[in-house]
């Protein structure tokens, strides 16, 4: 039976996701068919779909941290081959199909040779250098994604604080402005300027509450745009996590 076996992170290692005979959603949401508790997964992250004649395709569902097969980002449904590693955010799972259907119609992929730099390590320390270096790069990648997630959380906080201040300040400013205009019209015949015209009573230092509210709304507008830009930057960094050559885990030596 086709299945995905989680090989990373350690807390989920060994988890088996059986692929059934219908479309199944993988994610951390309660509605997901194949649910994994990982903060870097979207609620509905990806879907696996059986295809005619055997085999399985995988498609990304607009996830926040993306879906990859080996080192190729999944932008449209992609058929899986037996032994390929699927990345769902920071979760790595190996696809296994003991029926052999996963390789029909495909040329077997040549294994990649991976270069590991061992430096001057002693011979007795090299028995697990491949696994150690692989885990080192995966840990650095996961740490980077955690930093991006924290940055995105701050961006959302700034964004929504800006929205609250902008609309709250605008509402208070509009209220006192309209009230002042109404008082002015009602006292027009008396020839006396209405009290607290046009922005309401002072809140201290000669600043009427309407103008204070205007200032709060103005600052909120600035925070709104700062938060929006921060979210765009965070999303761009997350999308490039597996393609930006500046990251050590994308070094050319690891791609050969």
TrEMBL record:
Q: Which Gene3D superfamilies match?
A: 2.60.200.20
Tell me which UniProt keywords the record has, alphabetically: Membrane, Phosphoprotein, Transmembrane, Transmembrane helix
| Domain FHA, chain residue ranges per copy | 24-74
Give the source's domain of life in one word: Bacteria
The transmembrane residues are 157-178, 205-230
Q: Which residues form a coiled coil?
A: none
Pfam families named in the record: FHA (PF00498)
Q: Where is the signal peptide?
A: none
Q: Which SUPFAM superfamilies has this protein been placed in?
A: SMAD/FHA domain (SSF49879)
Q: Tell me which InterPro entries the record gives.
A: FHA_dom, SMAD_FHA_dom_sf
Q: What is this protein called?
A: FHA domain-containing protein
């Amino acid at each position: 039976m086709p299945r995905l076996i989680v090989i990373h992170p350690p807390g989920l290692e060994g988890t088996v996701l059986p692929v059934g005979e219908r479309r199944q959603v993988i994610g951390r949401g309660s509605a997901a068919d194949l649910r994994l508790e990982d903060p870097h997964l979207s609620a509905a992250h990806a879907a696996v779909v059986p295809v005619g004649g055997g085999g399985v395709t995988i498609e990304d569902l607009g996830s926040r941290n993306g879906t990859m097969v080996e080192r190729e980002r999944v932008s449209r449904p992609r058929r899986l081959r037996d032994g390929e590693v699927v990345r769902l955010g920071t979760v790595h799972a190996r696809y296994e199909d003991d029926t052999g259907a996963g390789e029909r119609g495909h040329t077997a992929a040549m294994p990649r040779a991976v270069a590991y730099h061992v430096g001057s390590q002693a011979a007795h320390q090299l028995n697990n250098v491949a696994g150690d270096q692989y885990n080192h790069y995966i840990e650095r990648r996961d740490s980077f994604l955690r930093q991006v997630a924290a940055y995105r959380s701050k961006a959302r906080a700034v964004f929504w604080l800006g929205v609250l201040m902008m609309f709250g300040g605008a509402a208070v400013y509009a209220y006192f402005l309209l009230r002042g205009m109404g008082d002015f019209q009602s006292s027009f015949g008396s020839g006396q300027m209405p009290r607290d015209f046009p922005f309401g009573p002072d809140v201290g230092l000669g600043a009427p509450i309407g103008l204070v509210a205007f200032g709060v709304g103005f600052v909120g507008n600035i925070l709104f745009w700062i938060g929006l830009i921060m979210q765009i930057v965070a999303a761009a960094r997350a999308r490039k996590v597996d393609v930006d050559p500046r990251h050590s885990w994308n070094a050319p030596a690891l791609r050969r």
